[in-house]
Amino acid sequence: MKNIKLYDKVFRMSLPEEEIINRVKVVAEQINEEYKGRRPLFLSVLNGAFMFTSDLMKEINIECEISFVKLASYQGTMSTGKVHEVIGINEDLSGRDIIIVEDIVESGKTIMQMMDSLSNRQPASIKVCTLFFKPSKLEEKINVDYAAIVIPDDFIVGYGLDYNQLGRNLRDIYTITDEAE
Fold first, then answer.
1. Distance, first Cα to last Cα, the chain
2. Which pLDDT value is given to residue 132?
3. What CA dihedral angle connects 50, 119, 82 and 10, to 10 degrees?
4. Which of 49, 113, 155, 156 could join 103 via S-S bond, C-beta 3.0 to 4.6 A?
5. With the C-alpha atoms ordered 173, 48, 38, 142, is the resulting torsion angle positive or negative?
6. Gyration radius of the chain over CA positions
7. What is the spatial distance between Cα 18 and Cα 80, in angstroms, rounded to a whole number?
8. What is the 3-state secondary structure (H, E, C) of the chain?
9. How confident is the model at residue 86 (pLDDT cuts 50, 70, 90)?
10. How many other CB atoms sit within 10 Å of the CB of residue 11?
């Protein structure tokens, strides 16, 4: 397996792009089936979910809309525990089916804050779709409706996920191996 270095950290390739794409297709099939005859609004959480959202939307074959929200809660390899909304939502959400598209769900704090904010706008439903899910880290009582890949509690980069803004462009997923070099 190939290793890469980003700043002071070493990562090993742990999940090839082909496997990621296959799991994205499975999630898209589930959404296509569940939302037949409806028009959901996908809310993609930037920056991390941009690659996942792009590949997911290529497989969605129902009428839908998409918008983007930017939230931040990470610094380095650790979540700060504080979520800052950077770019908000301008759409009228009342009576709409909302699917939040996230890169990774760990503690659930980001999703919980977003769901609380969205519920004030009277949507018909809110579901969570994530590329990666770490159930062992979950601190909030939330439902992850569509999880493409369940992973252990490792720090990962690639396919939109970053380490201090580096690594988002990597096609594969890399797992941290050393804390410093």
1. 18
2. 97
3. -30
4. 49
5. positive
6. 16
7. 32
8. CCEEEECCEEEEEEECHHHHHHHHHHHHHHHHHHCCCCCCEEEEEECCCHHHHHHHHHHCCCCCEEEEEEEEEEECCEEEEEEEEEECCCCCCCCCEEEEEEEEECCCHHHHHHHHHHHCCCCCEEEEEEEEECHHHCCCCCCCCEEEEECCCCCEEECCECECCECCCCCCEEEEEECCC
9. very low
10. 25
Q: What type of residue sits at position 69?
A: V
Residues 123-162 pLDDT 10s: 999 999 999 999 999 999 999 999 999 999 999 999 999 9
Residue 128 has what pLDDT? 98
Nearest-5° angle of CA 4, CA 76, CA 138? Answer: 105
pLDDT-based confidence at 116, cuts 50/70/90?
confident
Per residue, what are the HEC states of 98-112? Answer: EEEEEEEECCCHHHH
- Say how far apart CA 133 and CA 145 lie, in whole Å: 11
Provide the pLDDT for residue 90.
83
Task: Confirm if 159 and 2 have CB atoms less than 8 A apart.
Answer: no
Dihedrals phi, psi of 136, to nearest 5 degrees: -70, -20
Q: What are phi and psi of 56, to 5 degrees?
A: -65, -45
Per-residue pLDDT, averaged over 46-62, amounts to 96
